[in-house]
Amino acid sequence: MNLSLQLLFHGAIVLLIGSLSGIPYGSAITNKKDEEVIRAWRVAHSGLSMGGTTMIAFAAAINQLDINAIVLSILVWSSVISGYGFCLALPYGAWVGHRGLSIGKTIENKIVYLGNMVGATGSLVSTLALIFGCLQSMNVVS
After folding, report:
1. How far is CA 17 from CA 20, 35, 39, 125, in A?
2. How far is CA 62 from CA 6, 70, 96, in A?
3. How many Cβ atoms from other residues are within 10 Å of residue 79's Cβ?
């Protein structure tokens, strides 16, 4: 399995969802919605667009790394899981009006919170794997 291609493909999907989140963002602005609604859609649009772009950049960069298959798999699949976690949390949170910064009481907030935690954890793991892969490729660690 070509992991670089997998990451590129899933990054493109996350980028697409981020781009599509620009539609309700623009609508919220033109319809003069509450500032919290506009902010939530702005976060969904920009956050997913940046996340998808980062995944695409990682897909290009991993071909430069000389790392073992386990670290590479961790890097790729934690990025993919992160991207889809945020694809759930950010647009759904904007739609239902929850930020999901704490576990909260409503089921909607719990869903947003779970998506945020999956996204943040996956992002942290993939970034650490990328740093480790760079160090390993530079023969700083073995």
Report:
1. 5, 22, 17, 22
2. 12, 13, 37
3. 28
Task: Measure CA of the first residue to CA of the last residue in the chain; give whole Å.
Answer: 25
Instruction: Give the separation between CA 95 and CA 25, rounded to whole angstroms.
Output: 11
At 6, is the secondary structure helix, strand, or coil?
A: helix
Residues 52-75: what's their mean pLDDT?
96
Burial of 129 (0-12, 13-18, 19+ CB in 10 A): buried
Mean of the per-residue pLDDT values of the chain: 96
Q: Compute the distance between CA of residue 110 and CA of residue 15 in angstroms, rounded to an integer.
A: 24
Residue type, 139: N
Report whether 51 contacts 18 (CB < 8 A): yes
pTM over 0.85: yes
DSSP string, 48-115: HHHHHHHHHHHHHHGGG----HHHHHHHHHHHHHHHHHHHHHHHHHHHHT---SS--SSHHHHHHHHH
Number of helices (H), then strands (E), belonging to the chain: the values are: 5, 0
